[in-house]
Amino acid sequence: MQKDIFKAIADPTRREIINLIAHQSMNLNAVADNFDMSRPAVSKHIKILTRCGLLIIKQQGRERFCKADLKQLKQVTDWAEQYRRFWTQKLDDLDAFLTAEQNTTDINHKNKKL
C-alpha cells in the first residue's frame, strides 16, 4: 500500500535520507550510520519511503541497497506549482499597482511645480 508522499517528506529525517540516497545508492547500514538513532528507527523511515515509491531496495548478495526514485516527488512539485503561479500573479499585480501609483504621484508632483 502506498502512503501519502506529503506525510513521508514532512519528517526531516526522511528528507535527509532522500538527500543522502539521491546522490548515491547506499546500503542500509551506511544510511543508518548518518543518523544518531537506532538502526530499527532508521529502518522504519526507509520502509515508509519505500512504500511511497521514493526508495527502491535491491538485494545484492547479503546486503540491501537503497536507491532513490524521485519521480513521485512530481506530485509535490505539481501541488506547489499552483501556489507559485498564484503568488507570482499577485505580486505582478501589486508591482503594476505600485508603479501606476508612483507614476500618478510623479505627475501630480510635477504639475504642482508648474
TrEMBL record:
The record's section on InterPro entries has:
ArsR-like_HTH (IPR011991), HTH_ArsR_DNA-bd_dom (IPR001845), WH-like_DNA-bd_sf (IPR036388), WH_DNA-bd_sf (IPR036390)
Which species is listed as the source? Mucilaginibacter dorajii
Stored SMART domains? HTH_ARSR
Give every HTH arsR-type domain span.
1-88
Q: What's this protein's name?
A: Metalloregulator ArsR/SmtB family transcription factor
